[in-house]
């Protein structure tokens, strides 16, 4: 039997000061779940994914198949999911474990119905992500990132860049982005999910996408048409 440190998380901020802590250890036998296999529909999807790769390199499908298994398994990748994918791809189970434990996109313990990932990388931090993370934790009555609410509706973690820096601060819920957040709009998003609703995705500030928050300052006139302002010989 071995022990696994399941996730690194951080304590809520105390005036911007953060301490890094590790979550509790889980013994290996706690990671084993009931047998897993793809549903008939997902098995067809898996076979279609595998067909994208040469037969001798079908193990390259390990990441999309683990993602497919995680989605079927209520958002987390159990040992049973890993073993099933290893058998399907004819890989040593340890090779699949290495992938599942390396990429943070794979959750190795059960999560809530709504999986919230709050970005706290530099661009988001400069725009107030510390306050957003603290708002999420306080509103859901959680102490630390990595915890799940008692009703099982929410799991909150702190993550690195989600690629929406121009719309910072932001968070991801499931597969959807919620950007330009303030503590007030963050609470509205959480309340909507708590009621079983799906709030409007994208910027919560009124911006359409990621245009300049101060208004349009470039490309604000009719673009040139084909051939305009060209020398006569090039028309």
Give a topology summary.
Blueprint: E1 3-5, E2 8-10, E3 20-22, E4 25-27, H1 40-50, H2 62-72, H3 79-89, H4 93-102, E5 114-119, H5 122-126, H6 129-139, E6 154-159, E7 171-173, E8 176-179, H7 183-194, E9 202-203
Parallel strand pairs: 5-6, 8-9
Antiparallel strand pairs: 1-4, 2-3, 5-7, 7-8
Keywords: 2Fe-2S, Iron, Iron-sulfur, Metal-binding, NAD, Translocase
Binding site for [2Fe-2S] cluster: 119, 124, 161, 165
Cofactor: [2Fe-2S] cluster
Features:
single chain, 235 residues, alpha/beta, Arc Repressor Mutant, subunit A, Glutaredoxin, 2 domains, 5-stranded mixed sheet, 7 helices, 9 strands
3D structure, described in words:
- Helix content is 30%, strand content 14%.
- It has a 5-stranded mixed beta sheet, covered by helices on one side.
- Strand 7 and strand 8 (176-179) form a beta hairpin.
- Helix 2 packs across helix 3 and helix 3 (79-89) crosses helix 4 (93-102).
- The longest helix has 12 residues, at 183-194.
- Mean pLDDT is 87; it is low at 1-9.
- It folds into 2 domains: 31-108, Arc Repressor Mutant, subunit A (Orthogonal Bundle), CATH 1.10.10; 114-203, Glutaredoxin (3-Layer(aba) Sandwich), CATH 3.40.30.10.
- It starts with a strand and ends in a 32-residue tail after the last strand.
- It is an alpha/beta fold and 235 residues long.
- Residues 195-235 are annotated as: Disordered.
- It holds the Pfam family 2Fe-2S_thioredx.
- Keywords: 2Fe-2S, Iron, Iron-sulfur, Metal-binding, NAD, Translocase.
